[in-house]
Design a protein that fits this description.
By secondary structure, the chain is mainly β. The chain has 1 helix and 28 strands. Among the domains are: 85 residues; 143 residues, 7 Propeller (Methylamine Dehydrogenase, Chain H). Helix content is 3%, strand content 49%. The strands form 7 sheets. Strands 3-2-1-28 form a 4-stranded antiparallel β-sheet, with no helix packed on it. A 4-stranded antiparallel β-sheet has the order 4-5-6-7, with no helix packed on it.
Length: 347
């Protein structure tokens, strides 16, 4: 549904974008491992590999009256999206790992924006804007800021993109007690078809497998709990053969993450579903139908290394933040960085 206010908002964004120099969409970049620190200063560190010394440090310079919420690296390319929680609402800033420069995803940062997903090629980002006013879903070019509104319902809370970029999967709810619906559409939101409907539960945090044939998602009860227990489910990309894999945590909003070869899924599990703090790093092996876990109060969703050999987690303890590596072949867990909150790979 197109809002009557959108033409004015879109015109404003377009005019503002025209005044801002932007890098070429094909600007060169160097693949790297990165991590973020928030104290004493918010900074992004780039490394050639996880064991190398940092080769570059980029100050994040948080916007006024804003605090860090999450980092969202593009699946491919030089961009890293940072979500800030600000006095006016959430906003998304894009960092160029090649130049060290940054700009807001929307040229007017006072328009609240929440990250939804990246296009697989890392050139465009999906945002939900105007959540408390006129909700809209936009696809925004990371380099130029050109925004396109998509015909996606205002009640959407979750969106992901198939690896080939040709299908969108999104979930929506009309409020507590109404359950959830999951839809599949074309890349511009056209020709939507309902994939799932669940009157009792919320289906969220869905992710396509690397080959696009399956979808992993978290399901949890539709109630007012702020730390609900959840379940990890998998279904075909057409909505068939949905089946439960394991219990999971749903209160932290962290997605299940497929291994690069599609044989495993890393996610945040719960040892005891009724206890929100009994969380762990869990890895489900689909070939072996086996689950392994490591106790950790993770503050970030797991991150796979490009070769699938490591999983990175952020471990919170008191006021301390640490990054740990879980080695798949040995099951060994090693502390990698202290004072760091988040990490990933620029590919």
């Amino acid at each position: 549904m197109r809002s009557k206010l959108f033409p004015f908002t879109f015109l404003l964004l377009t005019l503002l974008c025209a005044c801002t120099p932007t890098p070429s969409a094909d600007a060169p970049y160097t693949p790297a491992f990165f991590y973020l620190t928030l104290t004493p200063d918010a900074s992004l560190f780039l490394l050639d590999n996880p064991t190398a010394a940092p080769r570059q440090s980029i100050p994040l310079n948080p916007p006024t009256d804003c605090s860090f919420f999450a980092q969202r690296p593009a699946p491919f390319g030089r961009w890293i999206a940072i979500e800030w929680e600000c006095a006016f609402g959430p906003t998304v800033e894009l960092f160029d790992s090649a130049s060290g420069e940054s700009h807001f995803a929307l040229s007017d940062p006072t328009i609240d924006s929440r990250f939804l997903a990246w296009q697989p090629d890392g050139r465009q980002i999906y945002l939900k804007i105007g959540t408390l006013s006129v909700p809209q879903t936009l696809r925004v070019d990371a380099a130029t800021g050109k925004a396109t509104e998509l015909p996606i319902p205002a009640f959407v809370y979750d969106l992901t993109v198939a690896p080939n970029g040709k299908r969108l999967l999104y979930s929506l709810t009309k409020g507590i007690g109404f359950g959830s619906e999951t839809w599949l559409s074309g890349p511009d939101g056209q020709n939507p078809s309902q994939l799932l409907v669940d009157a009792q539960n919320i289906v969220a945090l869905a992710q396509f497998s690397p080959d696009g044939s399956q979808i992993a998602y978290i399901k949890f009860p539709d109630n007012e709990s702020v730390t609900p227990p959840g379940e990890l489910w998998v279904m075909s990309s057409e909505g068939g053969n949905a089946h439960l894999l394991a219990t999971a945590d749903a209160g932290r909003g962290l997605s299940p993450v497929w291994a690069p070869d599609g044989t495993k899924i890393a996610f945040i599990g719960r040892d005891r579903p009724a206890e929100p703090d009994s969380v762990n790093l869990s890895i489900y092996d689909l070939k072996q139908a086996a689950l392994v876990s490591f106790p950790a109060v993770s503050s970030i969703q797991p991150v796979w290394s490009p070769d699938g050999a490591l999983v990175v987690i952020g471990v919170a303890g008191g006021d301390k933040m640490e990054l740990w590596f879980y080695e798949i072949s040995s099951g060994q867990v090693t502390k990698a960085f202290s004072g760091a909150c988040c990490a990933g790979w620029i590919r």
